[in-house]
């Protein structure tokens, strides 16, 4: 088969790779229907997270089960499945507490930008849809593999409740789906922080009531203006920089909650400053598996359409252009289809 391999900064190649096979009895082999480029893929792509050798890429996926190991009982060949970027057994104490991304036997899924994928711990990782979905549902189902689940976790960790005032820091796919998640959870006011018109438009479509274009101190001041000087009940941090984290904490009211899901790069928190902020912090790698059944149901019933974050669709063989488009902010998120023609929705 062929798949994406990162060789170094801004050097993604589509080349021959060994076709995955069953290695353990708990494995499944999935024929990929759709995969995509994640914002977190841009950290190694830009050389900020250096790699030491050519590295297969991709951790978001959905597709048809082709084969399962002898110990797999929950999925079977022919089913359409979605899985998280962390394989989990879904039975260990951490999984039972709802933190499958901290499973004691977790394995990172890191080779999904290809036509075939081996998924370890299939019983605890993969969730089947009620039937093989129509083509128009596939983008939204793919979004559940990471960005929608991560946005939902951000809102959940930020304690969004009916009537809450919410601020979302970050206008990438996760931030935008954080807006959608907060809206689904009943937030009364959702402030999206964005400088980009196309992303502002999608944020409003997903439920944002206000847009703030300022950042840093000015962004905090503007959100305080919108909340009568108090701050938000819940803030979703969806970037992972020092500025975004401090902006999130300072935009939160005393007693409020910050849900942080941006992969941290250079983030340092000052103990005394945090002490007097009086805010709750909760975040980390999203336990997407926890939310998959409920999110699949919402997509299947047409109640949410997270696939709208994909504003560029390309054949998998053009994966390098997909990375370039996101790196240059010409696209919010690139969807990749094996054996398919591309389009600009």
Brief summary of the model shown:
The protein has helices spanning 42-45, 93-96, 122-125, 138-143, 147-157, 173-184, 197-206, 216-226, 242-250, 271-277, 288-300, 319-327, and strands at residues 2-8, 11-16, 28-36, 55-56, 61-68, 80-83, 86-87, 107-108, 116-119, 126-128, 165-169, 189-193, 210-212, 232-237, 252-260, 280-283, 312-315, 334-337. With 345 residues, the protein is of the alpha/beta class. The chain has 2 domains: 2-146 and 287-337, Alpha-Beta Complex (Quinone Oxidoreductase, Chain A, domain 1); 148-283, 3-Layer(aba) Sandwich (Rossmann fold).
Could you characterize the architecture of this molecule?
The chain has 12 helices and 18 strands. It is an alpha/beta fold and 345 residues long. It has 2 domains: 196 residues, Quinone Oxidoreductase, Chain A, domain 1; 136 residues, Rossmann fold (3-Layer(aba) Sandwich), CATH 3.40.50.720. Strands 3, 5, 6, 9, 10, 17 and 18 form a 7-stranded mixed β-sheet that branches. Strand 12, helix 7 and strand 13 form a beta-alpha-beta unit. The longest helix is centred in the C-terminal third of the chain and has 13 residues. The mean pLDDT is 96.
């Amino acid at each position: 088969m062929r798949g994406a391999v990162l060789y170094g900064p801004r050097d993604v190649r589509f080349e021959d790779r060994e076709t995955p096979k069953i290695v353990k009895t708990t494995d499944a082999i999935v024929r990929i229907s759709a995969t995509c480029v994640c914002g977190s893929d841009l950290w190694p792509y830009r050389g900020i997270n250096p790699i030491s050798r050519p590295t297969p890429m991709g951790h978001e996926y959905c597709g048809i089960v082709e084969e399962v190991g002898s110990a797999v009982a929950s999925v079977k060949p022919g089913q359409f499945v979605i899985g998280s970027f962390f394989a989990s057994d879904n039975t260990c104490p951490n999984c039972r507490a709802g933190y499958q991304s901290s499973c004691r036997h977790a394995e990172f899924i890191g080779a999904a930008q290809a036509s075939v994928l081996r998924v370890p711990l299939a019983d605890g990782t993969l969730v089947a849809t009620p039937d093989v979905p129509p083509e128009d549902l596939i983008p939204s189902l793919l979004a559940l593999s990471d960005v929608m689940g991560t946005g939902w976790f951000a809102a959940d960790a930020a304690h969004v409740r009916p009537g809450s005032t919410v601020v979302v820091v970050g206008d990438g796919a996760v931030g935008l789906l954080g807006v959608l998640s907060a809206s689904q959870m009943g937030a009364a006011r959702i402030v999206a922080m964005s400088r980009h018109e196309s992303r502002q438009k999608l944020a409003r479509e997903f439920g944002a009531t206000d847009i703030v274009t300022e950042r840093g101190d000015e962004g905090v001041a503007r959100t305080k203006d919108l909340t009568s000087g108090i701050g938000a009940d819940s803030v979703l941090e969806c970037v992972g920089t020092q500025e975004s984290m401090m902006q999130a904490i300072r935009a939160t009211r005393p007693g409020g909650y910050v849900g942080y899901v941006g992969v941290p790069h250079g983030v340092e928190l000052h103990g005394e400053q945090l002490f007097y902020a009086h805010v709750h912090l909760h975040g980390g790698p999203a336990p997407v598996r926890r939310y998959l059944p409920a999110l699949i149901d919402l997509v299947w019933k047409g109640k949410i359409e997270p696939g709208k974050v994909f504003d560029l669709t390309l054949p998998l063989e053009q994966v390098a252009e997909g990375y370039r488009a996101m790196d240059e902010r010409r696209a919010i998120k690139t969807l990749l289809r094996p054996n398919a023609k591309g389009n600009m929705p």
